[in-house]
Design brief:
This protein is of the alpha+beta class. It has six helices and ten strands, in the order H-E-E-E-E-H-H-E-E-E-E-H-H-E-E-H. Helix 4 packs antiparallel against helix 5 and helix 5 packs across helix 6.
């Protein structure tokens, strides 16, 4: 579909100064199921939508633990993500073995970005077709961090972000409520992550304990994965919150209608 004479290899530049194979890898991230991340002053939360290839299969895993203070969510090719997860786990183990302390997240993320970048200028390799959201707690400063990587080798740090298919609605929600994140409590961050995922669900499907997963890490709390029955209480609270918001909207519409009627009669 997009084939032309400049996309046969990752090291070939187009006349416009583009590396088309890298752009194709970035497109695979946009087609992966959505993943969101946000952080407060004490916690960092990841949320992901899981896909199943058929009704007879289980849902694919989207959130991975790297160490007790670090984990990641993915959008794109799951096989590439597993390869990167293995690399990150080995780096964390080696650092802990040599220095006797957990690996600072910024060091690992810079090494990971370099690993991404090397594939964009090597003839025998292709770019990783996966985008990562990495949540971590710095063991020295005890502050949470949220990082995003890209197949091109770019590395960003965010207060909140979303990647994957239909992630624009999640980003809009996160931008709208970003001011409340720094002081938000643990449970509020989880509810915000779930609410952002609601807009990323395709078609008539709903957010359930089967297709949603949440991971959290923070001060005094190791990386924890919430799935299945452990996630259901938060989904129930989200449903109740949605019902209350609908009632408030109906009440406001009724008040507006009464005001209009009073103006007409007067």
């Amino acid at each position: 579909m997009f084939r032309n004479q400049y996309d046969t290899d990752v090291t070939v530049w187009s006349p416009e100064g583009r590396l088309l194979q890298v752009e194709y890898a970035m497109e695979s991230v946009k087609q992966g199921s959505a993943c969101v991340g946000l952080r407060s002053n004490t916690h960092a939360v990841l949320g992901a939508l899981k896909r199943s290839v058929s009704e007879l299969s289980t849902h694919q895993k989207k959130l991975f633990e790297m160490d007790s203070h670090m984990g990641m969510g993915i959008a794109g090719l799951t096989a590439d993500a597993r390869s990167l997860a293995k690399y990150m786990r080995n780096e964390c183990l080696n650092h802990k073995y040599v220095y006797g302390a957990p690996m600072p997240p910024h060091l690992l993320m810079h090494d990971l970005a370099d690993k991404h970048q090397r594939t964009t200028q090597t003839y025998v390799r292709r770019p990783f077709g996966v985008g990562l959201l990495v949540s971590a707690l710095d063991p020295r400063t005890q502050k949470p961090h949220l990082y995003q990587t890209c197949p091109s080798g770019n590395l960003y740090e965010y207060y909140a972000s979303a990647i994957g298919a239909r992630s624009q609605s999640a980003r809009t929600y996160l931008e709208k409520h970003a001011d409340s994140f720094p002081e938000a409590k643990r449970e509020d961050l989880i509810l915000h992550a779930l609410q952002a995922l609601v807009g990323c669900v395709s078609g008539d499907n709903e957010l359930t304990k089967e297709n949603a997963s949440i991971a959290i890490v923070g001060v005094g709390e190791d990386f924890t994965l919430l799935e299945g029955d452990a996630l259901q209480p938060f989904l129930d609270r989200l449903e109740l919150k949605g019902g209350d918001d609908d009632d408030d909207d109906d009440a406001e519409e009724a008040d507006d209608a009464d005001d209009v009627e009073e103006m007409e009669t007067s």
